[in-house]
Amino acid sequence: MSGTIAAIASPAGTGAVSLIRLSGAKAFEIAGTAIGEVNLPAIRRTGLRRINDDRGVVIDEGILVCFRGPRSYTGEDVVEFTGHGGIVVTRKILERLIQLGAEPAEPGEFTQRAFMNGRMDLTQAEAVMDLISAQTSLALRSATEQLEGRLGATCEDIRAQLLGATAHLEAYIDFPEEDIDPAVGESLRTNLGTEKNRIEGLLATADQGRILREGVRTVIYGKPNVGKSSLLNRLLGYQRAIVSTREGTTRDTIEEVVSLQGIPLRLIDTAGIRESDDEIEREGIAMTRGQLAKADLVLEVRDLSGIAGPSPLDLPDGVKHLQIYNKLDLIHDSWKGTEGLRISCETGEGFKEMEEAIAKLLELDDQQWGDHSVAVNARHQACLIRARKSLGKAIVSMRAGEEPELTALDLREALTAIGGIAGVVDTEEILGEIFGRFCIGK
Ligand SMILES: Nc1nc2c(ncn2[C@@H]2O[C@H](COP(=O)(O)OP(=O)(O)O)[C@@H](O)[C@H]2O)c(=O)[nH]1
Ligand SMILES: [Mg+2]
Which phi and psi angles does 6 have, rounded to 5°? Predict the structure, then answer.
């Protein structure tokens, strides 16, 4: 059995308070020793307690709460101590707990234990991470809905339907003298088709999921000095990249995330494209081309004041592209009739229109962003693709009237793949399903 783990759960550094967590069979015992003569507070009640060092000298005073497993985050006995948020004092408390027999927790170990003890499924454990790293309100909402278990529940439901179909088929395998009733076969096929459509539906959210978790890869591209870095800075609201009249200032790519109507845009400022003798700048220009190849969206910046001509752009298919004319403040009023999006990074003019144009291009007002109850990640996507493939094979073999054994084999594969999403995989369960649902003793 795994030991009792301890960790500082609040961020490293000085804060108003810090949280130290302890989980495992010895959590209460270790905490009890750490506070000395006094009793631990009653379960789920707060108590003001002092943590002492091995000589009985007080390290810190704070609020202590005990949760008895399985009704705790990890499903084990858990103690949480909220202390004064200093770096040294917090570390000393952790050291004391380790001295008393706790082991330092690995990253994510509390959540891993929660999964192992059945407190949450794998999709919920992943949602904890998504929630912590969410960079926009929409990403956060998607994570909280996954944490509530919606994706897990949907997958579990699909799996239950497939399990039912498998059980049905296996009953025929067990009694080979009986042919599959054509009506039953038809309804089984229809059910499998329905579940395949649900899998397709989940797969269709993968792009959305990637964008919510990682952001729309938005490359700011153009000739030197057109104002690419100025655009990044203004969208961010602070001076992240160096802006200069000197050409070739930006040599490295710079990435920062901003929120556009709740959708994270991962802005990538690049080195301006030109012929250059400077080795480092050439390297930067090569990186720009690499970034373009991976982009979801390219913001091509041009200088309205006319010094820099158009930059040749050879984009892969499917990359969204927006042309933006900058330095609107520099040009004469009578020129302002030029078509296209015109902005000034100096004054902020035209930014509202530009942001609306980006949102429109990304179809952010589209229905799909309104219904973000699930958005699968890359791991879920891989499982779903496997499930779709096996299920497709099962449907084809059923239609062709092949042996039920073959279909059942494909269905089992689909079951394993779907089960992998929430972290449930079984074989016993199919047997249980057969005996539970069918009257075998005929
Ligand atoms: N007047 C004016 N100058 C700008 C504007 N945007 C950028 N600049 C100036 O143009 C020069 C190049 O800008 P920078 O952002 O470094 O261009 P980059 O090489 O494309 O990254 C700097 O001197 C900026 O201050 C703008 O909208 N108006
Ligand atoms: Mg620049």
Answer: -135, 150
Residue with CA closest to ligand 1 atom 26? 327
| Ligand 1 in reach of 223 Cβ (< 6 A) | no
Are 297 and 219 in contact by the 8 Å Cβ rule? The answer is yes
Q: What is the pLDDT of residues 1-40, one digit of tens each?
A: 489 999 999 887 788 899 999 999 999 999 999 999 889 9
What's at 106, amino acid-wise?
E
Cβ neighbour number for residue 13 with a 10 Å cutoff: 10
Residues in Cβ contact with 304 at an 8 Å cutoff, skipping those fewer than 6 apart = 325, 326, 327, 328, 330, 331, 335, 338, 342
SS3 285: helix
Please tell me the number of the ligand nearest to residue 227's CA.
1
d(CA 222, ligand 2 centre) in Å:
9
Name the closest-CA residue to atom 19, ligand 1.
Answer: 225
pLDDT band (50, 70, 90) for residue 142:
confident
Domains of the chain: 5-116 (3.30.1360.120), 150-205+376-437 (1.20.120.430), 212-369 (3.40.50.300)
Distance CA 28, CA 31 (A): 5
Q: Is the CB of 243 within 6 Å of ligand 1?
A: yes
Q: Are 113 and 14 in contact (CB under 8 A)?
A: no
Residue 235 C-alpha to ligand 2 middle, in angstroms? 14
User: Hey, which of 240, 243, 247, 273 would you mutate to test ligand 1's pocket, going by the most ligand atoms within 8 Å of its Cβ?
Assistant: 243
Distance CA 88, CA 80 (A): 18
Q: Are 220 and 232 in contact (CB under 8 A)?
A: yes
Measured in degrees and rounded to the nearest 5, phi and psi for residue 61 equal -120, 135
Nearest atom in ligand 1 to the alpha carbon of residue 330 is: 1
Model's pTM, two decimal places?
0.74
* pLDDT single digits (tens) 242-287: 888 777 777 778 889 898 887 889 999 988 777 777 888 788 788 8
